[in-house]
Backbone:
């Protein structure tokens, strides 16, 4: 499934209106969200919540999905990007 089509279905403007139940669609959304974090940067949980909260109020679910699907890793309350699509300049 085309990522752009999935994102158009689940986003209204900048807001994620629903977390997809179907894994393939959820992975497209998670890939987009992972792209909001800079590779090589460590983020405290509060900062992750702030970034994700700009898109959807259930930041705990989004954090869990990002870690479970290996888009991000977590240790001692610190998160960092571990996967997803990267833009190559």
Residues:
């Amino acid at each position: 499934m085309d990522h752009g089509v999935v994102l158009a279905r689940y986003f209204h403007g900048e807001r994620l209106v629903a977390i997809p139940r179907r894994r393939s669609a959820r992975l497209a959304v998670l890939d987009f969200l992972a792209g909001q974090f800079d590779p090589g940067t460590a983020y405290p949980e509060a900062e992750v919540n702030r970034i994700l909260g700009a898109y959807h109020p259930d930041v705990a679910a989004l954090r869990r999905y990002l870690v479970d699907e290996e888009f991000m890793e977590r240790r001692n309350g610190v998160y960092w990007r571990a996967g997803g699509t990267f833009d190559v300049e």
